[in-house]
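Consider the following assembly input.
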Amino acid sequence: MADASAALAARSTASRGTAIAALYERHKDRLFHVALRVGGGRRSFAEDVVHDVFVSLLHRYDRLADTDDLGAWLYRVAMNAALTRLRREAVRANPMVRFFLGDLQPEVPSADVRARLDEGKREALAALAALPPRERVAFCMVHLDDAPLAHVASVLGCSVSYACKLAQRAEAALVRAGYSPGGKRAPPADPMAETPLHTPAFGVRYG
Amino acid sequence: MAERPIVAELRAVDAALSPLAPSRELDSRIDALLAGRAPRVAQRRVAFAGLGVCAAAAAVALWLGRSEPQAIAAAPAAPSAIPATPSVSPPLPPPTSSTTREQPTPVEAAAPDALAFAEGTVAVPAPTAPTVRSRAVATPAAPVELVASAEPRARGAVDGARTPRAALVAGPAVGDADGALEAALAAVRADKARGDLRGAVVRIDALLASGVTSRVELALRIERARVLDRLGEHAAACAGLDGVAGDDAHDARVRLACP
């Protein structure tokens, strides 16, 4: 609701750039943290994702019909941008591509991130970073951000059932790595009728 | 080993990282984005597009530069003897890559079919398949007539009458006769255009007296007969065509109703 009022006020009183700047100030920390987690603690990755999100917003701002749900929209765009970058990195990690384009920078957390994490947290972040891109995004959205499976499916470009399957695969991989799926919520009866992202359950964490 | 709840661990990671904020560099990038400057992604795309265009242009340029004249079709199939020292020769044009003859390789020089000619000639070995293309148009000691009448030709044009061998076989190049004929006829037509028919006849007579090739002479005689016919001197016109052989002369006689 605060997003809606802020966006409406910005649109009505200021230019488009000012409105986007206000949205950036409001959402940059949340998007940065989401991308930082998906990117395995890499600050450069997270900042690139946030940059991509606002490039998308700048291009599509005039076509956005409903600015009430802009927080959820920005979140989905951020996850989509993160997935795109992770896939690109997966391609770059291919030995043949690496032969032609050179080695990638290793996927290690930034120094300030490492400094804030103890050994157990670092291992957990590394276990998450070891997942394939789609599974990683699905796991983060489903288990950590409580996103509806319909939104996960739209970000991943697959069906709801396949999104659920990807999350389960990620969970199984983490179990094989020695973790238990703690904090797992009960699956909803109807995935399409789940709580939307802008409800307080989601908004409390990132609102 | 006790299993650790991964979701709880990752939520703890989130809590530990929550004080972190994006750097000022991201703020400046967003400011630049909002200020209307091209985003970094777009700049990269433009750069890649530019590279693609340059690569395509280079490929086209290489492809165009690779193509050679197709005069191979008119290249001589058999060796020919060419005078090594032409009597009088105007300065040759500077050799180009397509007109410079390659030095025979030792293999070619030792070839059994390299023919030696009489004194004053150079031996041109029989062209082998790989060397035919490089020799397509060219011999340095081209005959005088050919060099004097050389006209710029379109690249790749096939003109059998202009090859050295054709020039040797057919005699003087056709371009000479054409040029002289055109010049003479242009002067005559200029006289006719001015209404100076008599002057045209005098000019034709002067040209005929100066000595021209048989082909030019035939054309001038026919033109002279036409002018005389327009002057009303029908008998003189027919008399001028008497004894002139050839289909053109016959047609002219028929057109003038000569007996």
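Residues 40-66 of chain B form the longest helix (27 residues). Ask yourself how this observation constrains the way the partners meet.
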